[in-house]
Design a protein that fits this description.
The chain has 213 residues and is an alpha/beta fold. The chain has one domain: 3-Layer(aba) Sandwich (Rossmann fold), CATH 3.40.50.880. Helix content is 28%, strand content 30%. The chain contains six helices and 13 strands. Helix 1 packs across helix 6. The chain starts with a strand and ends with a helix.
Length: 213
């Protein structure tokens, strides 16, 4: 049985993300079992890893590091063994070098950059909440087949700013471009919530389950 480890560290829409991943696995016919876990051995045995996240960067980083052996298992699996990884919302932000919400907090450092307060265009409010279209500065397999004008669901006040623009694979127009998705090697993440993005989100999750970086 191919397993997806959906990481439980006290943050994130675990059950809605789990339901969406199970629906995506059924639609894609990949046969994946979705397991909500904070057990390092289960993470080590998984084929793919998904890290959700809702809330403040500092709280999420602290919660992740408080789970014994989880960061080490993630690092070994993703950065060491090259397992496909998907970070959702703050789970994506944690890929950065640091987050600046509630002071400077170290992230995982898998994609160089910082998570900073959104600076939208005139007339746009913070937080950025609701449906927004996507633009794609470069193609990526997880973002294929989303339709001619894909819209996805956001809810956030901070956004990732990678040091290397090549790590940006999707943006959203909020008076100025905001980073909506990042990717480097076997690592992929979205600022938006695919589990709340209906058909587009289901297609994206199906793509992730079939992705072989």
């Amino acid at each position: 049985m191919k397993r997806v480890a959906l990481i439980d560290y006290g943050s994130g829409n675990l059950h809605s993300a789990g339901r969406a991943l199970r629906a995506a696995a059924a639609e894609a016919g990949t046969g994946h079992e979705i397991t909500i876990t904070d057990d390092p051995a289960t993470i080590a045995g998984a084929e793919r890893i998904v890290l959700p996240g809702v809330g403040h960067f500092a709280d999420c980083a602290a919660g992740l590091r408080a789970r014994p052996g989880v960061v080490e298992a993630l690092t070994a699996g993703v950065m060491g063994a090259g397992k496909p990884f998907f970070g959702i919302c703050v789970g994506m932000q944690l890929l950065a070098t640091a987050g600046l919400e509630d002071g400077r907090t170290p992230g995982l450092g898998w994609i160089a950059g910082e998570v900073t307060l959104i600076r939208p265009g005139p007339g746009y409010r913070v937080p950025h909440m609701g449906w927004n279209g996507l633009a794609f500065p470069r193609p990526h397999p997880v973002l294929q087949g989303l339709g001619p004008d894909p819209h996805v669901y956001f809810t956030h006040s901070y956004a990732m700013e990678p040091e290397d623009d090549a790590d940006i694979v999707a943006t959203a127009d909020y008076g100025r471009p905001l980073v909506a998705a990042v990717a480097r090697g076997n690592v992929f993440g979205t600022q938006f919530h695919p589990e709340k993005s209906q058909r587009v989100g289901l297609t994206l999750l199906s793509n992730f389950l079939k992705w072989n970086p």
